[in-house]
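Cross-posted from the bioinformatics board.
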Amino acid sequence: MAATRTLARRPRSAGSAGGGGAGTRGGPVEEDRDQTGALRRAVGRNLTAYGFLCGALICFALFSWYPMIREVILSFQQNNFVDPGQWVGFDNFRTVVEDPAFRSAWLNTAAFSCLALVIGYAVPFVLAVVLNELRHAKAYLRFVVYLPVMLPPAVAVLLFKWFYDPGAGLFNQVLDAFHLPPLSWLDSTSTALVSLVLVSTWMNLGTGTLIYLAALQSVPGDLYESAELDGAGLFRRVWHVTIPQTKLILLVMLLLQIVATMQVFIEPYLLTGGGPENATVTVAYLMYQYAFNFGDFGGGSALGLMLMIALLVFSTVYLRVSREAEQ
Amino acid sequence: MRTTRRGLSLVLVVGLGLVAASCGSGEEKKPAAEGSADGPVTITVGCQPPKSNPKERTAWDADVAAFQKQHPNITVQSKDAFPCINPDTFQAKLAGGTQEDVFYVYYSDVQKIMKAKQAADISQYVGNVKAAKDLRPDVMGVFKDGDKTYGLPRNNYTMGLVYNRKLFTQAGLNPDSPPKTWSEVQEAAKKIAALGAGYVGYGEYSAGNTGGWHFAASLYARGGSMVSDDGKTAAFNSPEGKAVLENLKKMRWDDNSMGSKQLLQWEDVMRMMGSGKLGMMIGAPDVVQSVNNDFQGKFEDYGVTAVPESEGKASLSGGDGYMFNPKATPEKMKAGLLWLEFHELTPGQGQFNYARSKEQGRPVGLPIPDLYGDTAPGQEIVALRKQYATVPVDHFAPYVAEQSNITNKLEPPKAQELYAVLDVAMSAVLTRKDADIDKLLRDAESKANKILAKNT
């Protein structure tokens, strides 16, 4: 960051030095002309950057900010997209809060996020530590770990639909090979949500692992050497060196994972349709049902706004943590 | 300085958002009419067969050319899609201004669209469609809200029991004598499931609102109702509702004839039927058409009979049709109605041009659509269908025999919401051996009453 700032300042100071010199020689008129020229040069120099900035701003405005503002407006309206929307105050919020599936959706989302933290947060970190310790086939294994991320999510989810098939599915075949009783996986209220977490973890662990791996590789080697000299084994090295050294990235990833997992949609949508017995209805899934199945965009937007506010809390913490990291 | 920049950014974001919001409010005004009564008018029409279905597309295009020759002032712009509509995209198409002037709908969405005023009232123009007076009143009723009309049907069918004749033979059952009672269905399902691993005697939906939909279909067939006459309270917690769930529970857990994989949705059961390992399911003859066209099944392997024990009772209405974009001008509506009469409602023409269908090698002989009942156009269509039949019509004879006794019954108000509630009961019965049916129905009833009480 410091290097970037230095580089950014360098041309500006060079320009000012030239302009200042000319001004001293030629009086106020020439000084003004020089200042205009400097501004023009500065704009010219940064034109490409402004171009990129505009592109990004337009994209964000169209695909992020506009939908967000529209969502807020829709959540207070009853809208059939034919007549002008009618303002209905908090009616949409009342409707969704009174929905029998509302409580289940939030509980399931919270349970999914917690399970995803227990399973999905630890696995990539452990994998990264193991990959970092390996001496051979590192690149190959990194590729293998990252491979699921390259699959389109719908394909990955449908692959698991076959794995989870109670009859011919891979998982029950494996259990059968070990003479273990088959599991219902998606068809039981007790295992359905965990099954979705497994899919989600498998699909996303590649990205997490690579980020942890990058963080691990920035830990100075001499710390490990000192720990080894002091007789620390692998576990103590991880506990006393790796974790303290990567604590910031661990925290950032934790917050990002909470924000991502609370928006879980594709897994229940494609695998369970919210069942059995609403065991996998999540907030995002219920939001989709309201907007697209029930034709109630007001209700869907109200739910979306509630989820957005919940996520905003985590996002604020994330921003604060990442700012601290920057400093 | 930093504060100023932040302030400016905020203003920029809010400003851009509001500009975009105002642009997207969708209230764009168009000229009132594209022309006078006989002036040029262009209509967009949905559900042109896709390029992957070249025979049907050729027939459609030929019909468009013939229609435009008859009405030189009308231009039909066909919009293709497969399937014709994904109901989940309806709101987005309407909001985005890409909804066709004459758009395709499933019966299951008509009530919702009419209540939300998302289709044009065509009452004052529909009288010009001569064929409309002969349409079955229950079929026309699908597109009516009070005395107002919002669309016309294209297809209509009542629910039946679709079965795999090949599997019936393999299991030692007589495919020409399909089950007439639920205990016969249970026995047949057991025999089919006993054929080996992967064979399923009877398949049923239980996720993505499809479970609730089929609960309603089975309930109606048994003479039950989803809601009270005034539509304000749930009525499915009844002996008929209980019988639907008890029958499924018995087949799933006592007979083990429904397979172990549950939470099935439309495509899952279609695939099972197409693969030739599913014995029976609730469905209409259009299931056979779908299984043949899209899921590698063969017409000759399937048969359809009436839903067991449904003699003289109601059937959940099934089918599709066309409605009009609420922003369509009167000229477009009139032109659209002319097109629908030409293509969807005239015997021997458009979709009923069975001579052409046979010539093209397309299946003819399925007992759908049944738009006219026993009226003159209905009899004419049945005669044409018999004349040009290419599929084994005997396989649908038990279904046809019962149809005159069964009337269409509309979906309940708040259908999708109620189906979502009943998905819970359906999935519980099919995934939990100890499911308490009375409690499930009580819970569903209480949730449904809350939904029905809402006036949004």
